Amino acid sequence: MSDSINKKSVVGSSVFYPVTRLNMGLRYVALWAVMMLANFPVIVFAQGECPGIHVNIPNISNSDGAIACALFESSEGFPTEFLHSATNIMFIKIQDTQARCYFLDIPPGTYALAIIHDENMDGKLNTNFIGVPTEGYGFSSGAKASMSAPSFEDASFSYDGGNVGLSIRLSY
């Protein structure tokens, strides 16, 4: 009985022996091929950024507080009443004196952005006793504040529903 078991194990091991003796280089080529084919659908079907308004805020004076990005679709409350009137609001943590806001799933239309560096995180743009801002601020379309905040029309831009990349520098 033990002789038949030994014969079966010898036959079984001789069948698998050539498979385990593959050249190591051939094994690596096979492994590489499997890995590439496994990632093929990801590579072929990968898409770019999601459609939306992508805002980059470079050169922030410091990393204290947060950046408030407020997207308005009308002049109502622009830009001072962003907590009450903005269509979308994001508070973003500052990393290495930069921040990025992403507004996704926004329908086509006319919009304006107001950006505030809320250093003390009180939810508003702080000013001194004569009304001059003491925190950073910026607006879309290169709109500048002179004696007062710019109008919605000055800061507005058209959005067609695709990808829009904006860069807004803050004024201090």
Automatic annotation (TrEMBL):
<keyword id="KW-1133">Transmembrane helix</keyword>
<feature type="transmembrane region" description="Helical">
    <location>
        <begin position="28"/>
        <end position="46"/>
    </location>
</feature>
<protein>
    <submittedName>
        <fullName>DUF2141 domain-containing protein</fullName>
    </submittedName>
</protein>
<dbReference type="Pfam" id="PF09912">
    <property type="entry name" value="DUF2141"/>
</dbReference>
<dbReference type="InterPro" id="IPR018673">
    <property type="entry name" value="DUF2141"/>
</dbReference>
<keyword id="KW-0812">Transmembrane</keyword>
<keyword id="KW-0472">Membrane</keyword>
